[in-house]
Amino acid sequence: QNEDKWDFVLVSDIHEMGSEKEMKRKKFLDELSKKGFTIKKIEDTKLFYGVRAPQHIFWKYQCLLTNPNSRQQNSSAYQDVPVTTRIRVVNFILHNTVTSDLEKLHDLMKKKVFEAAFPLHKKEEIREILKKKWARWRVLFKEQPIEEIRCYFGEKVALYFAWLGWYTYLLIFAALAGLATVAAGATVFSSSQVSKEICDANNTIMCPLCDQNCSFWVLSDTCTYAKVTHMIDNEATVVFAIFMAIWATVFLELWKRERATVAINWDLYGWDEEEEELALQLINNSQHEPRLYQHSYFRSTIVLILALLMIMVLIGIAHALVIYRAVAMALFMQSEVNLLSQHADTIAMLTGAVLHYITIIIMTKVNWHVALFLCDLEKPRTSSQRENNFTVKIFLFQFFTNFSSLIYIAFFLGRINGHPGHYVRIAGHWRLEECHPSGCITDLFIQMAVIMVLKQTISNIMEYLIPLISHQLRKKKKPPKKRSLMLGEEEEAEDPCKRQWLNNYELNEVNIFSLFNEYLEIVIQYSFTTIFVAAFPLAPLLALINNVIEIHMDAIKMMRLRRRMVPRKAKDIGIWLQVLEAIGTLAVIGNGLVIAITSDFIPVQVYKYMYSPCARENHTSMDCSTGYIDNSLSIFHIQDFEPHTKVLPEFKGKQIKECRYRDYRNADDYAYTVQFWHIFAARLAFLILFEHVALCVKLIAAWYIPDVPQKVKNKILTEKHSNLRNELSTAEYSTEV
User: Fold this and answer.
1) How many angstroms from the chain centroid is the CA of residue 454?
2) What angle do CA 535, 541, 544 make, to 5 degrees?
3) Average pLDDT per run of 10 along the chain, which is 737 residues long?
4) Which residue among 550, 622, 665, 681 is buried most deeply as judged by most CB within 10 Å?
């Protein structure tokens, strides 16, 4: 027998004769034999069963799924079915064969009758090409062989890599724009008037940052921070945020065009997933009745309520992190260690970010199980429908896991903590943390940087090392070869299949979610790259570096460390496209909010045009933001501190009567000033304007770039025309006869 002709291998433990498991296994294999499958058994430490499907199954498949026009031309000559189709059909039949006990392969695997079922990585020419051109580190910057990936792993995997490659290619432009923004910040804006004023404010005494044993401090202490903040918080950022909104739209529009070209080249336009599934069901069992569509409002309501509860839990976790930071800040401030007490806010922030990363890791596992449970409640009709439902749920949960803490920092931090003499407290004890003295955008920047760097380095290392180590361990498990005679049989020459099957068995198993995980990881990364990009313009650059490595790491995992995936057919990236479009819209809202609310862009503009010396007299020579810092700080009288606040009234040998804090409040009754309401109105006006402009530009870009290229449209048109012409000539010929 030719060793390459086995479609699938089933692996099972060696069970005792007559045991229940052995009976179940025999029943299942008998069912396969009835369908005409050839089965070959090889015994080692496990039992291996090679399975080969009979030819007539594939003939049926071709009859049912080739279009009628091509059928007339070569009705006798059935061309060979591609290997990917072969594996897909066999996989479907294996998983839908029912034994006399009404059990399928899935149930038998749960009961440990079979341990594994997988198609083989074979020594094909195409596999060698992929190993050479794709699954190695040397070809990091070369183009991917998408056509070969499709022939080996099927359309679904090929489309993932085509999409990932396309996204990575377009990230180059976003990364360059981000670098340009940071460079502009470092050169043009580092000498800005605002940071100059902060660095020169040696006499501006600020209110203490905690209640116990905290002294006053001087504003100029935060000079370096102010400079860093102005690198990311300046006019260039606004332009960059609008650019990223357009970039996200253009990326998706161009991908739709790319996908249309791929679909026509791979002859996927006429293909229909539902039809394929029905055809496979009929090939497996000609008496099969289709499962009809059903919809239950009761089920949907329950799923909705449970999903909302889960989201509440995730938001609750973000609250817990807020409380952690407030308490940690208070404890660090009172610490004996100088380093801790001096940099308490930064250390609380950094440890908070690391904790956030740890919660992301843990909650990802929990979200997974919850989303699967909710999917089972819905009882989806087909596997693709199930996958879509699961995708939406897991993405929502992951989004809140990753972003709830960032949303708090961006939009609530420092806005809800009251003012000196009247702070908002957790459990009446701990003060809520404030923004960094040089602005809230720095906090967001730190949090984004920590999470993105940790997520990409640690997750990638784990993603590569875990399969590598487990593969090495599986290889080690092999016992030495025994020369003893097994069950009295003569020792035969070793079967050539045995080595190949064993090697495949030693690889890591793949499951239905292997590809899904890769998608989810990249889509969450895409959210980081677009949603709060105004606060962290380097995000696209980090994503670009990550993706170049990710593509080849995934390739190496699929080719060398994992068993072969069951090739699946698809004509696009499915529901992920809608998810990406939703993220694109969120990105406009998110960046608009970051610039309007988190950054100091608006207060500075309001000051320039309404309160600065320029607004009062025509000073052309002077910088209009002169005096902004002094204007943005309110005055607080020491005697109004809360009774339990212990503050030393002396500072550098001077008695202090008043201190300053960031807010727009009156000095006598601490009510908001008129300027506060001016700025509030300006923030809202900017937000509405920014969102509308960005969304209009997105819509124009979406209209301007057609989803399907002309070439593809014309190809479909001429095909339809020639098909109709052939029909007509056939009809005329038959009437003449």
Assistant:
1) 15
2) 135
3) 72 86 91 90 89 90 71 51 90 91 89 90 85 84 88 92 94 95 81 83 85 81 83 84 88 91 86 87 86 87 94 91 84 77 78 86 91 89 86 92 86 84 81 76 84 85 88 75 47 72 89 85 91 90 92 90 90 90 90 87 89 76 83 89 77 84 89 93 94 88 89 92 93 84
4) 550
